[in-house]
Design a protein that fits this description.
This protein folds into 3 domains: 223 residues, no CATH class; 109 residues, no CATH class; 100 residues, no CATH class. The chain has 22 helices and 7 strands. The strands form 3 sheets. A 3-stranded antiparallel beta sheet has the order 1-3-2. Strands 4-5 form a two-stranded antiparallel sheet. α20 packs across α21. The protein is elongated, with a radius of gyration of 45 Å.
Length: 507
């Protein structure tokens, strides 16, 4: 045996044993510390392409030189098929800038699992950081950029000779120039593994008791061959020079007729045009419950599964949410709802028995729509009448004494207008103190009664009496009749009523 062959036999161990949960106390034969996981500090060399890099990945996976449980008590137990699957996705990227979310979608793993397997590849010397990803507050997360590396242990074990073509270039740019004769068979086996694709093992099998070989394949990962055109990557790293458009072959008609071969014509899919399957019984219940919780205010916040159980009778009978709302309109609505699901159970009791046909349900829906339209028209008429009342002509007060006083004031104003002079109410109000006469000719008792009525109206939120007096006789007359305090309160209340930021209600 030559010296190179002996070195290869010594460095490549047999199949690795199963890894238990206990961490080993000895240092592994293949381990790269965190300080040497950068491209500038790495001892390995950059892989020329993803295909040659996958040869090194399969060599590390089969050698058993690196065991994750020697460095930590959690995470993956070994460098297994899942790590190889993650490496396959990295081999297809150029540049190698994998986002965690991208790898999670492609492999079906969790975010933590993807991070663990990336750490395994770095510690095994197969990946080196070029740029480490960052998370900036308020901005998007930046993905890390890696360099696919071939460890020194791989070159030594297989007797691969390297050469540095550019003396000024870093050492990690050296390229392979030859291989030992004894390692050519092993390199050919690694090339076959690199040309195959490790897929995720299926969790379910067709038989209840799978064979021993099937269980073993599920544990080690299923390896399937990959054609040349599968080298194309999402980043357009490679292209296919072959076309499979003319390679489709059909089985003979005799086999199709006897049922020995499957027809190449695909069967119709059961999926609807919108991409959603037809709902089953439970799905229809939950769909109706979700629509009811969204359409009824007194069901907001109720548990959807509980509403689905309450409405299971009408849901199984094929009722729609519109038909349920029409039935609830027929049953009436409660003034106060304490428990929405309980009230719904009471209202829906016997609904599918009363409206037991689509025609009856359609009539109930039409009746409900007619009631809604009538309610809408009534509301429009109320709003229109209120606006007409507010914007219409002034109406005289209903009280006889107050009406007589207002008529006297109007007569005083009309008399001043007929004599071609403007009423000077403020001057007239100054004259009683001097001449001892009252311009409105009302007694103190009547004035006290007017102020009591105005004060009662202000308590109810109404300012009609004082405002009408201001519009008819002026602010000075209103202050003389009602006092400064009541006039000021009426003006403040009227200002609040006209503001869009204030809402008050009279009873």
């Amino acid at each position: 045996m030559s010296g190179t062959a002996a070195l290869v036999a010594a460095l490549i161990p047999g199949p690795r044993p199963s890894v238990d949960g206990d961490a080993a106390s000895v240092l592994p034969a293949l381990y790269v510390p965190e300080t040497s996981q950068w491209l500038s500090t790495s001892a390995g060399r950059i892989a020329g392409d993803g295909y040659s890099w996958m040869q090194a990945v399969h060599w590390v996976a089969g050698s058993g030189l690196y065991k994750p449980r020697r460095h930590r008590s959690h995470g993956p137990r070994s460098f297994g098929p899942t790590t190889v699957r993650v490496a396959q996705e990295l081999a297809q990227l150029s540049p190698c800038r994998p986002g965690i979310e991208h790898l999670r979608r492609r492999t079906g793993l969790s975010e933590r699992s993807v991070q663990n397997h990336l750490q395994i590849l770095r510690e095994a010397g197969l990946l080196s950081w070029i740029v480490k990803g960052t998370r900036v507050s308020g901005g998007p997360a930046q993905a890390s950029e890696f360099a696919r590396m071939i460890p020194v242990e791989f070159d030594v074990a297989l007797g691969i000779r390297t050469v540095q073509r550019d003396e000024a270039a870093p050492e990690y740019t050296r390229a392979a120039s030859g291989i030992a004769e004894a390692s050519r068979d092993l390199m050919a086996k690694l090339a076959k593994k690199a040309a195959r694709k490790v897929r995720k093992p299926r969790s379910k099998t067709s038989s209840k008791a799978p064979a021993r070989g099937a269980r073993k394949g599920a544990e080690q990962g299923i390896v399937t061959a990959v054609s040349d055109e599968a080298r194309c990557t999402p980043m357009q790293v490679g292209t296919s020079a072959l076309s499979t458009a003319g390679t489709t072959s059909f089985p003979p008609e005799s086999k199709l007729a006897s049922g020995e071969a499957k027809s190449p014509i695909p069967k119709k899919s059961k999926v609807k045009a919108g991409g959603r399957r037809k709902l089953n019984v439970v799905g229809r219940r939950f769909q109706l419950a979700r629509e009811l919780t969204q359409g009824l205010g007194w069901l907001r916040g109720c548990s959807v599964p509980r509403i689905a159980w309450v409405a299971r009778g009408v849901a199984d009978a094929g009722w729609t949410v519109t038909e349920v709302l029409a039935w609830l309109h027929m049953r009436g609505q409660a003034e106060r709802v304490r428990r929405g699901s309980g009230l719904l159970a009471v209202l829906l009791n016997g609904a599918e028995t009363v409206l037991d046909s689509p025609a009856k349900r359609t009539a109930a829906v039409e009746q409900w729509h007619a009631a809604q339209e009538a309610r809408r028209r009534h509301r429009i008429e109320q709003v229109r009448a209120e606006r007409e009342r507010q914007d219409g002509a002034w109406e005289s007060p209903a009280d006889a004494a107050l009406k007589r006083e207002v008529e006297t004031a109007f007569a005083h104003v009309n008399q001043a207008a007929r004599s071609n002079r403007h009423p000077q109410v403020a001057d007239d109000l100054d004259q009683p103190a001097q001449a001892g006469a009252d311009p409105f000719e009302i007694s103190d008792a009547e004035r006290t009664e007017m102020r009591a009525q105005a004060r009662a109206q202000l308590r109810d939120g109404s300012t009609d009496l004082i405002e009408d007096t201001i519009h008819a006789l002026g602010a000075a007359a209103a202050q003389y009749l009602f006092g400064d305090d009541l006039v000021r309160r009426a003006e403040q209340l009227a200002g609040f009523a006209r503001s869009s930021l204030t809402t008050y209600k009279t009873q």
